[in-house]
């Protein structure tokens, strides 16, 4: 039994698939400015080449490398080990609230299906033959849309949300945040359909404003604020239709 | 508690839910005791005499705290959902607990 | 769209109760000094239209509010769904309403 090494991190990694699994332990050499993704990559290259995980850009743009790190959902490529390590230990698990494909890679289908259910796609009225719409960046609606727009679909908010875990039908913070930015986009022509989608059961009205989504969003968006905006839209549409 | 839940507004949610649950479970007892007045003043007094014990006083302190914290926490949620967005909700949640505790202490001081 | 109606009923009943709860807290803190007695309570409430209306409205709002709140708990924490969930929710609401109105009648009626 080798002595515990302080220039090594003890890393517990969840291994398994949809049928279940367990933790495997690895000792990973510490490096300066090392990210959690670096740690996972080191394990895959040097300790166990069968480890599955997902990443692409490594610079916080693509949103594909999110995992649970010591119980908190994080973008692993931009999470420095020295910020999250506890007693020289790291626990890395697949994102919560999503079915596992294998090891650290989740099936994101339901996350994106809900994005569609919330009418998350832009549908404009203009064609390319027409001039670009003139929208002042100072317009209140445009500012609301801008505040919500920098989402990278990493599903960290979805993993942080307890309402998703209690009610699998709930659309979740990311899809609703997207719906909010489109409801504030004056070029979009499906505001009515989208409002119906987000007012339906499992929509914005299920949110309990715990703000886990806002606490852990790596881009510092606030889906709870967006959802609160949608609730106001849903309520006033109800009274206007009376 | 799971690591991702260790943030103030989850605790505020949990307190709101548990205080609401506690109040809802207390209501039948509350209504039963008041309903004893139908059987006459003596029966009502007998039902109320049960509230004289020191442990019951402490339980009442708890109930006043539950009502107050559910009230102020609920006002915070109504504001969150119906007023312009504020980034101060962690502070408001802490304030709600503080005021509720203050009110419950005021009740206890007058009760003993 | 059940959820939209429940959401609105929950918030509207809360807003109705807000001033009522404040008065209720005030009365409790005022009345608790020296303990509560049947005499003291009934002297205040018997034959009073004002207190009757106050507590009557309070009971209606709390029955709605508690039934919907418990519905959320039953659904999210105990995973009840469908008819069982809505049936229980209606039962809780009507039981609280009946017991509450009976209590109001008991302290207001003479």
CATH topology of the largest domain in chain A: Fumarate Reductase Iron-sulfur Protein, Chain B, domain 2
Instruction: Spell out the helices and strands of chain B N to C.
Output: HHHH
> What is the percent of helical residues of chain A?
25-40%
- Structural class of chain A comes to alpha+beta
Task: Specify the structural class of chain B.
Answer: mainly alpha
**Could you say what the CATH topology of chain B is called?**
3 helical TM bundles of succinate and fumarate reductases
Question: Mind sketching the topology for me?
Answer:
The complex is a heterotrimer of chains A (242), B (112) and C (110).
Chain A: E1 8-17, E2 20-29, H1 36-47, E3 66-69, E4 72-75, H2 81-84, E5 89-93, E6 100-102, E7 105-106, H3 109-117, H4 140-148, H5 156-160, H6 162-166, H7 173-183, H8 191-199, H9 212-216, H10 223-240
Parallel strand pairs in A: 1-5
Antiparallel strand pairs in A: 1-2, 3-4, 3-5, 6-7
Chain B: H1 8-35, H2 41-49, H3 54-82, H4 89-111
Chain C: H1 2-31, H2 38-45, H3 49-76, H4 82-108
Helix pairs in contact in C: 1-3, 3-4
Describe the structure.
The complex is a heterotrimer of chains A (242), B (112) and C (110). Chain A is an alpha+beta fold. Helix content of chain A is 36%, strand content 16%. Chain A has 2 domains: 8-106, Beta-grasp domain (Ubiquitin-like (UB roll), Roll), CATH 3.10.20; 109-240, Fumarate Reductase Iron-sulfur Protein, Chain B, domain 2 (Orthogonal Bundle), CATH 1.10.1060.10. Chain A is built from 10 helices and 7 strands. Chain A is elongated. Chain B has 112 residues and is mainly alpha-helical. Chain B is 79% helix and 0% strand. Chain B has helices at residues 8-35, 41-49, 54-82, 89-111. The longest helix of chain B is centred in the middle third of the chain and has 29 residues, at 54-82. Chain B is elongated, with a radius of gyration of 17 Å. Chain C has 110 residues and is mainly alpha-helical. Chain C has one domain (2-108): Fumarate reductase/succinate dehydrogenase, transmembrane subunit (3 helical TM bundles of succinate and fumarate reductases). Chain C is built from 4 helices and no strands. The mean pLDDT of chain C is 95. Chains in contact: A-B, A-C, B-C. The interface between B and C is large, with 37 and 36 residues.
